[in-house]
Amino acid sequence: MIHTVNRGQQRQLDDRPSRRTLAHDARLAARQAMRPLSFSVLRRLGSAGFTSGARLAGELSVSRSTIWKAVRDIERSGVDVEHGLGRGYRLCMPVDFIDAQRVQAMLGPAARGLSLTVLDHCESTNTALARQAEADAPHGTVLLAEWQTAGRGRFDRRWSSAPGAGLTFSVLWRFDKGTPLAGLSLVVGLAIADALRVLGLREVRLKWPNDVLVRRRKLAGVLTEIRGDMLGPCAAVIGIGLNVRLPQATLDAIDQPATDLARSGLENLDRSAILAAVLSGVASALERFGRDGFAPFRREWQAHCASLHQPVRVALPDGGVVRGTMLGVDTQGALRIQVADGETRRVFSGELFEPSAASAGRAARTRREGSGAAHGRQAEIE
User: Fold this and answer.
1) In the beta sheet, which residues pair with residue 82?
2) Which residues share a beta bridge with 175?
3) pLDDT tens, position by position, 97-112
4) Mode of pairing for the β-strands spanning 234-243 and 217-228
5) Which of 41, 82, 247, 325 is the most buried (most CB within 10 A)?
6) Distance CA 154, CA 122 (A)
7) How many CB atoms lie within 10 A of CB 257?
8) Residues in a beta bridge with 117
């Protein structure tokens, strides 16, 4: 028998932040925001040689003290700058800025209708693109920020990055009336993983519902927000964060195991090429999803799932907890978990956790030693 745990089904598709979180992010952004002048300085700095403060001041028609303040802004954003006494400034590592024209030229057939705008910085690309969607921005609008000052993920979590260190962008995709949207985040995560495999990343896996992992460390995440009627024409604002080359300090500040492409073996690819590959894959997957829903993607998603047939714990939006063995997902993208009595629970929204290695070992021994339909105490419902 299958029981459905449907607490907060809408949350999976629409993780809008609370007012408290928005206020906190606004205060954080106010402290961290890099002024336009600071980005102008950053774009003039290189890693091969020093650029003097006097030269920067002359080019930008400001004082040298203003340049010094701009460099402090750059350093606070997470970019390491070397100060040379009497010589000026240079970047410890070059910043690989996005070339929008190159990206557009490299897009695959399904993505050629996309329209990419690149911002130096903004608080959140999802928030900014949602405003554009409400003002009738066209289908296929893509907004990328070289740096998000208040990027966010599911359940109001902050997305940490630094200028040029990752890809943080949002895609506006409009769906016709009657399009089933269950499983949308899973399809986007799968499309990202497939694109990265084509680029040469072999160890990429998926975590329900919307994380992309390498060696069980988070590499990318998806935040999907729906505007409009779920049963009628609607607009999906799909936010994607992908770690490319994070400074160690930024990586250390993330509150969960994380990694980036450079640490995973793709250190030689430029961000524009990666962005083009991901956008091409996502656009192709969204076209198919709009026609056929999640069902055609289910088998492939499960083939790359990091937790399939493993003991898991799922924290539900209402505070409840489901423990059991992950059996996969259904044709709507709902998580299927076998619990202690042998029944299967369907979970539409929540946060999935895997046990520690020791706990997993104990659970495996329990399954081997147990008997009956439930194979011992594999799980429990709280």
Assistant:
1) 90
2) 234
3) 999 999 999 999 999 9
4) antiparallel
5) 41
6) 19
7) 11
8) 143
